[in-house]
Structures are given as C-alpha cells and as structure tokens.
Amino acid sequence: MVIYFANPHGDPNRLNCDVNWQMIHHSSQLIGAAAAFRLSQKESNTFLKEITDQNWHKVKTKILTVMRFGGGLREKKRNDGAQATLRDGKQNRRRRSSLARLHEKSVQLRSDFKVTALQAKDDLQTKAHRWATKMHGGNAGIPPSFTWTQTLWSFVGVLATHSILSRLNYFIMTETADTSQLSLILAPLGALTTLQYNLSPAPASQPRNAIFAQVFAVTVANLISYIPFTAENAWFRTALAPAIVIPAMAKLGITHPPAGAAAIVFSSIKNQWAHMAIFLCGVSITIINAVLINNMSDKRQYPTSWPYLSRAKAKMFVKKNDR
Q1: What does the alpha-carbon distance between residue 169 and residue 188 come to, in Å, rounded to a whole number?
Q2: DSSP of 63-83, one letter per residue?
Q3: Which of 19, 59, 192, 231 is deepest in the core (most CB within 10 A)?
C-alpha cells in the first residue's frame, strides 16, 4: 500500500486532475516493483549461500578422503624414486646453475643495453643541440676593408706577378706546340696571389706552406691520375685527390688552400711530370714577386718568417759563441 499526502491548502481541481492521478498511479507501481524486487533479491542471495555451503562441504569431504588414502601411495612413490633422485641430483643442480648463470647474463646484457641506449640517446640529443647552436653563428666581426693605398699595392703586386706568369705560359705553349704541348696551369696561382697580397701575415700564405703543400698536392694528384679508372668512373679522381691532400696538409702543418685547387686540376687529366716542374717554377716566381713587392709597403711584411734560415742563423750564432 502506498499513501500520498497532499497540501491541505492546495487547489482541489489540480490535485484531482487526470494528469496528477496518472503520475500518482505510475509512481505507486514503480515503488511496488522496487519493493517486490528487493524481496526476490534477498531470497536469491539466501539460496546462493546455501548452494555454496553445500559445494564447499562436498569439496572438503573429497580433500580429506584423498589426504587419508593417498598419503601411503605418495610415501611409496617417494621411496621408489629416492634412488633416481640421488642419481639425477648432480645433473639437475648443474642444469639449474647453468640456467641461473644464463639468466643472470641475459639480465645483465639487457640492463647494459638499456644503459647504453640511454647514453647514446643523451649524447645524440646533446650533439644535435650543439650542432643547431653552432649553425646560428658566433660573435666574430667582419674583417676590416683595405685602405685605397693597400688596395693599390695588391693591384700592383697581382698585375706584375700574373703578367710574368701569363707571358711565361704563352712562351711555353708556343715552344712546345709541335711536341709535348706543355703549359703553365695558372688557376691555383691566382689563389696563391690572393693570399700573398690580401692575407700576407696568414700562416697559409707563407713560402714554407706554399712550396711544401704544392709539391705534396701535385705529386699525389699525378700519382692518382695513373689509376686505371673507367670512363664512367674517371670523375672520382677529382674527388679522391683533394680528399687525400687537404687532411694530410693539416696533419703535416702545411695547410695551403691553393694546393687543394692544384690537386683537383692535376688529377682531372693525366698530366706529365713536366707540368709539375713548370707549375712549381710558377710558384717560385710568385713567391719571389710577393717578397719584393709586399716589403716595399711600410705596412706590409712578407714573409713573416723564414723558418729554416732562422734555424741556420741560430746554429751559426751558437758555433761562434763556442769559439
């Protein structure tokens, strides 16, 4: 039974309308259904509890029966298998120890691999960050420009030097036109004069670097030109020659940019060794002109030092003091 209480001061027409009666009727049915479901649920839970207790009683009885009648059988099996256990004891212990060692090694290997992978990841991230930071550039300023006086000295030196070199090249080509067709390769010498008149104090511009680096570069390039490349792979010579010459110059302490250009030029075709001699004569002429013209200026000095002459003077000075 469901009892509803209404407001005594409410409107009787609204309380007795059809809509209100239907709402009260449906609510009563919902409340009755909930009450009926609760009673059924309580009965169902009681039934399930009884079934569970009965099943547990059966299982308990079976376990006690097995334990009572199966103990003797287990004891007999233990006695029969005692000798087999003793025989196989050592072998089983060896297998367990080997498996244990294998497991330890595998665990250690996985741990080492994880540590190495994490370190490699951190190193890669650090290098990538450093690489990206370097590409933003440093704080170095732009080199100062030459005055008109220094620019005029460079013009005079380059014009005089290349006039001599170009005339020498024309003479060699004219004299050898019918025989060996020799010539003076001028491209690397243009790079050399750039260093001598625009970067006179630079270490790469000094005669020591120029002579030794050019001899080394041209020799390597000429030797590479004898490697029997096919027509399709001949381009690799112009890549191999500077790849050998440029790092080797840095290792020997004779870095000289024009020597890298000479290595490319001399490796591009199969040159005669006479070309090398002519080219080194051109290098010598360029150095002599740079020494004469640069030192005419009050603000220039070339070279900054003659290493071997300085050593010879020092030895001579020591000998005089000993006397």
Answers
A1: 14
A2: HHHHHHHHHHHHHHHHHHTHH
A3: 192
